[in-house]
Amino acid sequence: MRHDRDPLGFVVESFRKHGDVVRLKLGAETTYLVSHPDHVRYFLTENANNYSKPPLVNDPFLGNGLFVSEGTYWRRQRRLVQPSFHRERLNGLLSGMADLIDGMLKSWEERTRAAQPLDVAEEMGILSLHMTTRALYSEVPDAPTTAAVRRMMHTFNARESLLARVLRLERLPLYRRKWADFFDTQRLMRRKAKEIVERRREGGSEDDIMAMLVAARDRDTGEAMTEKELRDEFMNLFSGNEGPGAALAWGWHLLSLHPEIADRLASESAAVLGGRAPTLEDLPRLRYATQVFEETLRLYPTAWKLVRIAGAADTLGKYPVAPGTVIMSISYILHRHPEFWSSPEVFDPDRFAPGGPARHKFAYVPFGGGQHICIANNLSLMFGALVLAMVSQRFRLRGIPGRRVDIHPGISLLPRGGLPMTLEPRR
Ligand code: HEM
């Protein structure tokens, strides 16, 4: 099954051969692969209520939170959680983020002395995990927990294979140990959610997302979230931890292929930061770093597909949609669509410069669009720019000569087998 072996290659080829709307039969399901931004706008915004996310409600790990819910429940939860991600709130997270990045850079300095390549994808994954937990509940997991969560994320990503899912390979002895570890870590994180919810409900001085969620009240009913709702939202937000790290890994890969862009980024950091840690005032001046991150998310949108299920019968453009049809839009294709991007394969952060070329809003959807747009989009953009700026002040990252970097399209789009790179201090 080509789709199973190489899901990204399969959809890219289907688009190339058949164009903007392709009808696929994947197992028993009819799936429309949709690659025209007008169609994407239609199912994400114009008739969004007819297109719901695939059912995952009450997944043992996620419970019923923002990622998986729909309808009235989702709407209420989104209203309650949204204020924790307002811009003023994010500003308060900046110095914590800068501390974490600085800690990583110090450890890199020691490790570069050993001149060993570093798995930069893993480093970014860990940093991104720590940024997320710190924003969520003001803590950074210890080393064994960090390692367990990273193993869990790797297992999660490997599971995306349709065949593995259909055969439920996790039941086989060979896989059992890996999956036992996976479920242990899920339970560990759910215990953490319980502990944090209980502590925040008792009160305290923490000023994190969980403290805000405990204090949030529904504007219509005045009700607070129940303990279960709080635990579920904790798990849903926690599960977003990989996104920024995966994008940053691709950023370093692209920069290693384009030293002139890496140098321009380093010059901006030197001019704006001059070797010190960033402050809030610096953020708008790290414009090029933001552009590099945005352009990276164009070429490698880590959340690479948007999937919806049609409720009632409908038409999408001129195509009839039966109830239950799966609508799948691949951001990787949209972001490289030759009708909507000039030289789409070229890494060019100036596309995102102020006053840069106009574009179709739904030809660029790294954070999705419409009502379900990523709640952490601004937080991720801020973090991405800070990491790029702070790291490039201190290091140049180089790929390993002759080593190919392939894409692993799991839950996130990741460099297959990690991303070993060497670090060279910048003088
Ligand atoms: C570069 C980093 C990230 C990318 C590219 C990304 C991408 C996305 C995308 C594409 C969606 C929409 C999915 C859909 O419509 O089917 C989404 C939703 C979501 N993301 Fe992110 N995300 C990132 C970081 C994060 C982080 C760090 C968190 C948590 C702190 C997070 C939490 C969420 C949640 C809760 C939703 C569901 C929103 C809703 O349906 O109301 N994301 N994300």
UniProtKB/TrEMBL annotation:
Q: Print the keywords alphabetically.
A: Heme, Iron, Metal-binding, Monooxygenase, Oxidoreductase
Q: Which Gene3D superfamilies match?
A: Cytochrome P450
Give the highest taxon in the source lineage: Bacteria
Asked if the keyword Heme belongs to this entry, the reply reads yes
Q: Which InterPro entries match?
A: Cyt_P450, Cyt_P450_CS, Cyt_P450_E_grp-I, Cyt_P450_sf, Cytochrome_P450_Monoox
Concerning its family, UniProt says: Belongs to the cytochrome P450 family.
PANTHER family from the xrefs? BIFUNCTIONAL ALBAFLAVENONE MONOOXYGENASE_TERPENE SYNTHASE (PTHR24291:SF50), CYTOCHROME P450 FAMILY 4 (PTHR24291)
- What is the protein name stated in its UniProt record? Cytochrome P450
Biological source species: Myxococcus landrumensis
